[in-house]
Design brief:
17 helices, TIM Barrel, 8-stranded parallel β-barrel, 46% helix, globular, alpha/beta
């Protein structure tokens, strides 16, 4: 029986959301929280984009140091030999890659304007996979953009050709949220049975079904005898109407009627991190968590109706499927005003050392404290908001990594 794994794409798809973005330090903190949560892989950025290089290499060093383990760190590029070559030129240490190309007739005709046909798409996928493997890539996912609007016969040919070329996973992309739970279940079960390789589900919320489609698509893959990898983003942030929300997907698989009996995670997923990662992403993106967001919204455990309030006081399970403590809610929160003093662009040493000491960070010398304070100031300039406690602790523990994350090298 196949298992289910999570691949979070906040640091790739989430940051592509119009009008939103994250600093490199904020992206690193997302990776740390994802690792704590039990997410199998973070799609952590774009290895062909030069301003990502220092960040990507710094995070791969954190992986080598054991800080970001066991999580995998995967880059996303187009399925072209040119992109593969560029990725390994800028980030030679990378081992996990997602190679993406459009497969539907709508995309082939609309994007390539008659310059490419189906055979060209197959050739590009095969050549890019072979190039990635020749450079030492250990895990390659081939992404069929707009898979839900692709004829199933071509999708099968595409996936089989990719598998023969050495691809490790096939990503079924419901790029426009076009699928429904029934159609995606059937398509993914068919693919799993015929192609016989692990399948990723990448679903968007244009019709409000990203979580439902992700879960049922994964059910189809498992019923087809293969491992399923669900793509998520924190708080569902993503292009247009967003992606499948990480916490909602986990809650559905753990709590929805009878699902957990058959469809199991391949590695433990720790919901205790849910509140922390959701709040951080909300703060970093400057996007409030909707009050009705499953698990982490302000009203997720709020009861106003007299009948509901009475019932939940007698037994929370009367009106709650899961406990707020399961999601890490109800923990004490730091409200120390010195947090702003500590992380501001113009912070002073006395306030900084006091607040860091309150968090258990003490410096051996004033010079060490000044170095970390200077890095915190630069991080604040890049983020344009006060740093949270975990960011300050990270900078203090890994100042050289932080320095690299804060360094952008302009094109010469």
């Amino acid at each position: 029986m196949g298992k289910i794994y999570l691949i979070d794409v906040t640091n790739r798809d989430g940051v592509q959301t119009a009008k939103l973005g994250l600093s490199k330090l904020e992206k690193t903190m997302i990776n740390i929280y994802l690792n704590e949560m039990g997410v199998y892989q973070s799609e952590f950025g774009f290895p062909t984009t030069k301003h990502e290089s220092n960040y990507l290499r710094a995070n791969l060093r954190l992986h080598a140091m054991g800080v970001l383990q066991p999580i995998h760190l995967g880059g996303w590029i187009r399925a072209t030999v040119e992109d593969v070559e560029k990725a390994f030129e800028l980030v030679p240490e990378i081992k996990d890659l997602a190679l993406s190309i459009s497969t539907s007739q709508q995309m082939i005709n609309g994007k390539f304007q008659g310059r490419k046909g189906e055979q060209d798409i197959l050739n590009m996928a095969v050549e890019s996979i072979e190039a990635a493997k020749s450079h030492g890539a250990q895990n390659v996912s081939i992404n069929a953009e707009d898979a839900s609007r692709t004829e199933i016969d071509f999708l099968l040919r595409f996936a089989c050709a990719a598998k023969a070329a050495g691809a490790d996973r096939f990503r079924y992309c419901d790029t426009l949220g076009y699928d429904n739970p029934f159609s995606i279940y059937e398509a993914c079960k068919h693919l799993a049975q015929d192609v016989k390789m692990p399948i990723e589900l990448h679903c968007h919320g244009d019709l409000g079904m990203a979580v439902a489609n992700s879960v049922t698509g994964a059910m189809g893959v498992v019923d087809g005898g293969q491992d399923a990898y669900i793509n998520t983003t924190v708080n569902g942030i993503g292009e247009r109407a967003g992606n499948a929300d990480l916490v909602a997907v986990v809650l559905a698989l753990k709590t929805s009627k009878d699902l957990a009996k058959k469809y199991k995670f391949g590695i433990p997923v720790h919901l205790k991190i849910a509140s922390k990662i959701s709040k951080f992403a909300s703060y970093a993106f400057k996007v409030e968590i909707p009050i009705n967001q499953p698990g982490v919204g302000a009203n997720a455990f709020a009861h106003a109706s007299g009948i509901h309030a009475d019932g939940v006081l007698k037994d929370p399970q009367n009106y709650e499927l899961y406990d707020f403590e399961e999601l890490g809610r109800g923990e004490p929160e730091m409200v120390e005003t010195g947090r702003e003093i500590a992380s501001g662009e113009y912070s002073g040493m006395a306030g900084f050392r006091y607040v860091m000491g309150k968090m258990g960070i003490n410096f051996e010398s004033r010079d060490d404290a000044e170095d970390v304070l200077e890095l915190a100031r630069y991080a604040n300039v890049l983020a344009q908001k006060p740093l949270v406690a975990d960011e300050l602790v990270f900078i203090a523990k890994y100042p050289e990594i932080a320095r690299e994350l804060l360094t952008l090298t302009p094109l010469s």
